[in-house]
Design brief:
Blueprint (H helix, E strand, L loop, with lengths): L1 H10 L7 E4 L4 E3 L1 E2 L17 E5 L13 E5 L3 E5 L7 H7 L9 H10 L1 H4 L5 H6 L7 E3 L2 E3 L6 E2 L10 E2 L6 E4 L11 E7 L8 H13 L5 E10 L4 E11 L2 E11 L4 E9 H6 L1 H9 L8
Parallel strand pairs: 7-10
Antiparallel strand pairs: 1-2, 1-6, 3-4, 4-5, 7-8, 9-11, 11-12, 12-16, 13-14, 14-15, 15-16
């Protein structure tokens, strides 16, 4: 009987499980210390400054063999001190937010179990295409869905076809007179040489972003986000500068591979990014690069 009671108490001990979901949808499952951390706050502004996850967990090592990973509060969308998968509370708050594919089946189960509550929420697939061209523009292994009505600049060869000749030149898009975008609005996708991240990844990412923005006369806005994939890193960051007609901003998505770096850059006025920021983020999220260089 004592053994059973002891096991029951052990199973209730905080810090034996935990899940973290970053704002970009990346998830980590390990151990969170419930004696140190409060429950996840409803308001993102109240997130702890630092959330520490440790391993091993259920006999598994952490990513890259790590025993510890520190997450900054501004990187977090949600966490739970006792679960090892997104809970019903998570889906109720973040059902239509991007998340790793391994949780898609759980999201569908939640949707069917709570159909009356979530049936009015746009599905992630439908939401992805909102405000974008359904047909991708492709060139040299690159692929992106520009905003509705946007056209390629100086791309006579693209008339009547979505597949462009492979070359090293960038893809440049313009809205023309479409959708109320400013004259400064533009989208560019290009390929550059490989980059080798430094040992201090956060510092290297920040340095890379500042170096990319410097030739444009822009300053970095907030801390860049970085996501690890099986093939490399994905960086997202934004820049700003004062223009003749007001503030100009840029939104970046950079995909690092062993032999090349692929950049998608959206430029516009503060009004462009404030009023159509979701379209910009969806557009850049459709950027696909060669799986193998």
């Amino acid at each position: 009987m004592r053994v059973l009671i002891g096991l029951a108490l052990l199973s209730m001990t905080p810090g034996l499980a935990g899940i973290v979901v970053l704002k970009n949808g990346t998830t980590f499952v390990g151990k969170l210390d419930g004696k140190v951390l409060p429950p996840c706050p409803k308001d993102a502004a109240d997130m702890p400054e630092l959330v520490v996850m440790t391993w091993p967990h259920n006999g598994q090592e952490g990513p890259e063999g790590r025993a510890r990973w520190e997450f900054k509060g501004h990187e977090l969308r949600w966490y739970d001190l006792e679960a090892d998968a997104p809970t019903n509370d998570y889906w109720e708050e973040h059902f239509d937010a991007e998340i790793e594919r391994r949780w898609h089946a759980a999201r569908e189960r939640f949707k069917h179990a709570h159909k009356t509550e979530v049936e009015l929420v746009p599905s992630p697939k439908v939401e992805l295409w909102k405000g974008l061209e359904r047909s991708a523009v492709r060139q040299g292994g690159l692929e992106i869905h520009p905003p509705l009505g946007w056209t390629l600049v100086d791309a006579e060869a693209a008339e009547g076809q979505s597949e462009l000749p492979a070359d090293e030149g960038p893809l440049r898009f313009s809205p023309g007179e479409q959708g109320g975008w400013s004259a400064q609005a533009s989208l560019e996708v290009h390929r550059a040489g490989p980059e080798v991240p430094g040992d201090d990844l956060d510092a290297w990412v920040s340095s890379y972003a500042k170096a990319a923005l410097e030739p444009r006369g822009e300053e970095l806005v907030e801390t860049p986000e970085v996501r690890r994939t099986e093939l490399g890193l994905v960086l997202t960051f934004s820049g700003t500068k004062a223009g003749d007609e007001g503030e100009l901003r840029s939104q970046w998505r950079v995909v690092l591979r062993d032999t090349a770096t692929y950049c998608g850059t959206f430029t516009g006025t503060a009004e462009d990014l404030d009023e159509r920021g979701e379209v910009v983020r969806r557009c850049l999220s459709t950027l696909k690069v060669p799986q193998r260089d």
